[in-house]
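We emphasize that the prediction below concerns an isolated chain of 138 residues; any contacts that depend on oligomerization or on bound cofactors are therefore not represented. The input was used exactly as deposited, without trimming of termini.
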Amino acid sequence: MKHYRKEIWFEINLRRGLVNITQELNSALKESKIKEGLLLCNAMHITSSVFINDDEAGFHHDLEVWLEKLAPEKPHAQYRHNGSENNADAHLKRTLMGREVVIAITEGRLDLGPWEQVFYGEFDGHRRKRVLVKIIGE
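Result of the prediction step, given as a token string:
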């Protein structure tokens, strides 16, 4: 069994943001030369996420509104976690959105549904962060 590892780095200059990373994952898969197997992609920071969904601006807006309703950033005093950093909401948003995705690899391609795209979600930006890509298979 072959394996491949790659890190993809981000620096989102806003507090929150979404980045479509599907093409970066396709590039990593091509570099790996693995044709059948699994790709794991996970956020390596507790205030960011990797998830699969539609790349549509209306949905992205709805997601932002939904997350802010469930875990509002302010008032900061509502969270016991907040102290040196006011990012408790970012931890909660990451919990809601998840840490990683696992995607089947079939015939050298990511086996995604017709509208599925992979996203990096940033919930406490202004610093350098990374995702890990691990591919295993033949």
